[in-house]
């Protein structure tokens, strides 16, 4: 926390955001924008959002048991702090696909951000670029691919100039693919992503159809069908040709256009492993061999199949509990998948992360990086760009401080020896006397 104790580091001193908050609050009575405890973020977001916006942000599949299990799974592990470790020059970097990241955090793909804020994905892409956090744009995004790419690039340049964290002046962005029913539309989306500087393609596999989400259904809460948040599709030349062939004028009937768009990429058609070679080869051809990942993997057999078929990485994810009620938690699935394919593929973790200790535990179990979603969604909902920035800077500071307090000098030191399975019973006082 002492600004005079600044040994050379490979990353910004994220922890100094804590001091910045204290100094501003005491010197000029300028308090931080809001409390970043996850419970308070949820409360504030619920206050700010419409009932439909809150429903879509918070709804989970069925009874919500998978969402709950994602959280309780972290309680199965405890961190083992180390003392008298020189942590002054901490290294929060990790490496993915040959790129050095300033932290082990990535932005999860989340669709239809315009229901959370009028600017949609743009503030998130910008702040991620500014802080050097990989940004993932969803196919269900509510701004054009090109606009998100430009916002990310702008943020990265500001970050490099201001020393805020970005290590890639052009930003580091990935494109999450929901595979359309028509191949020519899939090719168009991948080509646009590549042309906009997106450096990896992540195919999400667990959303052939939306799960039964009680509150969303009771409210008929589906922005796409209302004509909200379909800009990514409506800016696509191939999709506009589809609309024309079906006699739909998007300007006159935004609801019909929205239904057609989302029905093309989400609903009514599942794919098998037989489709994977075409998707991989298409992306590799378009991108000149940039990384390809599968998202939604929870089974060791599926992880081995992904490796066998040539994927560069996988995201261990259950869609934050939004798709399969009663599913295994992502954290439960992680260790076995890492053991099976971790030496051959990049393994990312997604679902349930609410703070630095959660990320620490996922890294200790073998993930190379963790993806976060609802935290920044709430920040976006509460205060737009500044809300996203405050949430992400707070998370980075919390992680940096956790490493310092727990005695870990680098992300590389966070491995299986850094945690212990919970449930180990302490001896009673009587036993301790023996």
TrEMBL record:
The keyword Oxidoreductase applies. InterPro entries: Aldolase_TIM, Alpha-hydoxy_acid_DH_FMN, FMN-dep_DH, FMN_HAD. Residues 30-424 form the FMN hydroxy acid dehydrogenase domain. Keywords: Flavoprotein, FMN, Oxidoreductase. It comes from the Eukaryota. Its cofactor is FMN. Signal peptide: none annotated. It holds the Pfam family FMN_dh. Belongs to the FMN-dependent alpha-hydroxy acid dehydrogenase family. This is L-lactate dehydrogenase. It comes from Pseudozyma hubeiensis (strain SY62) (Yeast). The lineage of its organism: Eukaryota, Fungi, Dikarya, Basidiomycota, Ustilaginomycotina.
């Amino acid at each position: 926390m002492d600004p005079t104790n600044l040994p050379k580091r490979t990353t910004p001193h994220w922890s100094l955001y804590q001091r910045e908050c204290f100094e501003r609050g005491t010197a000029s009575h300028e308090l931080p924008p809001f409390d970043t405890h996850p419970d308070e973020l949820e409360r504030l977001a619920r206050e700010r959002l419409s009932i439909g916006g809150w429903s879509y942000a918070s709804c989970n599949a069925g009874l919500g048991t998978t969402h709950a299990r994602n959280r309780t799974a972290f309680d199965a592990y405890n961190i083992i702090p180390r003392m008298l470790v020189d942590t002054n020059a901490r290294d929060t970097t990790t490496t993915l696909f040959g790129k050095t990241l300033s932290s082990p955090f990535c932005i999860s793909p989340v669709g239809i951000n315009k229901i959370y804020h009028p600017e949609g994905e743009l503030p998130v892409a910008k702040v991620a670029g500014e802080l050097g956090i990989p940004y993932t744009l969803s196919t269900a995004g509510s701004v054009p691919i090109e606009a998100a790419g430009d916002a990310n690039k702008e943020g990265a340049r500001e970050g490099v100039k201001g020393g805020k964290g970005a290590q890639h002046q052009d930003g580091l962005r990935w494109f999450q693919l929901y595979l359309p029913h028509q191949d020519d539309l899939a090719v168009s989306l991948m080509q646009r992503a590549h042309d906009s500087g997106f450096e990896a393609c992540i195919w999400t596999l667990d959303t052939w159809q939306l799960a039964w989400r009680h509150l969303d259904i009771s409210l008929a809460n589906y922005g796409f069908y209302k004509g909200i948040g379909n800009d990514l599709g409506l800016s696509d030349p191939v999709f506009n040709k589809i609309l024309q062939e079906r006699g739909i004028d998007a300007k006159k009937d935004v609801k019909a256009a929205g239904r057609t768009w989302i029905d093309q990429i989400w609903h009514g058609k599942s794919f098998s492993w037989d489709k994977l070679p075409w998707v991989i080869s298409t992306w590799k051809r378009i991108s000149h061999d940039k990384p390809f990942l599968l998202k939604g993997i929870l089974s060791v057999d599926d992880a081995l199949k992904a490796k066998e078929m040539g994927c560069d990485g996988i995201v261990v994810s259950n869609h934050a509990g939004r798709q399969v009620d009663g599913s295994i938690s992502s954290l439960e699935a992680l260790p076995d998948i890492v053991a099976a394919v971790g030496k051959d593929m990049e393994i990312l973790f997604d679902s349930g992360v609410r703070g630095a200790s959660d990320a620490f535990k996922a890294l200790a179990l073998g993930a190379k990086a963790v993806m976060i979603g609802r935290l920044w969604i709430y920040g976006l909902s509460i205060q737009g760009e500044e809300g996203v920035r405050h949430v992400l800077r707070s998370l980075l500071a919390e992680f940096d401080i956790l490493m310092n307090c727990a005695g870990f000098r680098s992300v590389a030191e966070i491995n299986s020896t850094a945690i212990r399975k919970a449930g180990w019973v302490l001896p009673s006082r009587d036993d301790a006397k023996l």
